[in-house]
Amino acid sequence: MCTNYTPTKKADWVKATFGVDLPNGYPDEAYPNCLGPVVMKSHQTERVACGLARFGLIPAWAKDDKISRHTYNARSETVAEKPSYRTAWRKRQFCLVLADNFYEPNYATGKAVRWCIQPADSNPFGIAGIWDKWTDPTSGEVVVSFSMLTANADEHPVMRQFHKTGDEKRTPVIIQPEHYNRWLGADIPAAEEMMTWANMPTLRLHLNPERTKGVDMKVKEILSDVQLVIAQIEVKLNGELRTSPTLCALIPAEGSEQEKIIPLNTPDGKPIFMNYENVIRPLQ
Known about the structure:
By secondary structure, the chain is mostly beta strands. The protein has helices at residues 11-18, 86-90, 180-184, 188-193; strands spanning 5-7, 35-41, 48-55, 73-75, 94-106, 113-119, 125-135, 142-152, 170-172, 174-175, 203-207, 221-223, 227-237, 240-251, 260-263, 279-283. The protein folds into two domains: 5-206, Alpha-Beta Complex (hypothetical protein yedk fold), CATH 3.90.1680; 213-283, no CATH class. The strands form two sheets. It has a five-stranded mixed β-barrel with strand order 2-3-8-7-5. The radius of gyration is 21 Å and the shape is elongated.
């Protein structure tokens, strides 16, 4: 599930990648009902265009726009069947949602800790989406809207670490740059084939930037082969030693070095604002 992302504002990347101009007039962070830039391609002329669309698909038959509160993500497994999405899918109204990153909550400590996720190369990227047009029956305004396509992520090395224990793990389907054109012009079998995280680029994640200001951490970013774990950590707080289960990054061994466990939270589950040197050692 993805309800919050950063629409890219890197116009040079959009121009170099798609040959089109990036529009203006959208927020720095997008939530359902916000506008964001999407790229589409005409199946008749093969013309590529970039425009603003509303996050949360409104099907053409909807009586009002309230449905968009529930249609920001479309499950790839059922998109061809659900009334809200099936027409857009059948018509191959595919798009790319242009983003710099997206956010997901991790509940390993029992509390939601917001993490930022992006491709390992740090470049903007395209999320697979479907779009539709809806005409407001009151004003006559034509609204273009979209939904991000998602796939099961129970086995994904990064995305399986988010959302509450027991909930199915999901990920927005990120398209590899070399497959952007293929996705925009895909037929249904090709589109179905691309609806898996195995085709996605390598992801990395880091704590929400505003929550790590002033933090003395030896590792601020961890790559996709690094797991989040709960480890017993011995810390020194207010002059007293304390042992507590803590959210940590498990850093793989390199060469002769041993595997490292880096605490990411204080023992009470808050983002780590203590000095790193207060961490005495992880207890194995």
